[in-house]
Amino acid sequence: MAEPYGLLVAGFNYAGAAEDEFHDWYDTEHVPERVRTKGFINADRWLGVDNPKVAIATYDLETLSVLQSPDYLKIGGVNLSPWSKRVSAKCERVCRFEANQVVPGQQAAPSNAGALLLVAMNAVPEAESEFNDWYEKEHMPALSAVAGCLCARRFRMPAGTHRYLALYHLTSPDVQASAAWKAAADTPWTRKIGPHIRDRLRLVLRPYDRSKDRK
Hints:
It is a single chain. 29% of the residues lie in helices and 32% in strands. By secondary structure, it is an alpha+beta fold. It has one domain (6-213): Alpha-Beta Plaits (2-Layer Sandwich). It has an 8-stranded antiparallel barrel with strand order 1-3-2-8-5-7-6-4. β6 (149-156) and β7 (164-170) form a beta hairpin. The chain is globular and about 50 Å long. The mean pLDDT is 97.
């Protein structure tokens, strides 16, 4: 059986940094370093719809083990560049997720999305089995069938603050606020599972556009 794709998600609130330097650092050093690293499939940048100072980067990986490879360790962790250390020190960490793709397993992000919905969460241990059944048998299939949903993927984190992550690539941010989306998400099974969900992080994001977002 093929090994699942990995995922790296890194998010900052960069309100404490100079906006032009933050975007220049990301665009001209940080992302290019990672794209050049063996095992990185792609790199996408996103900004919060409600708070554009929230910046999220997503990277699909051939496997999660890429993050332990010599090539990546040369540019990550203690080996971050001086520019990376200086800029990131001025930012507030929103999230960092290292995950394995469990559904569908080996699907890269589409290149034409007009929005991204990121949802991370934990489930209480006593309800975790039913939580996973609900997510994979009802919740994700229902949301992925809503018009405007281009791609729905689910991930599991082996460590960190959250165990589960879902990414929905959408044609626009309005899709996740539509009546159809809300109807798909509001079911008896959803209402049963809801009280067993903890630490929910939900971000509605739009694609970063250097020509418009760098000031």
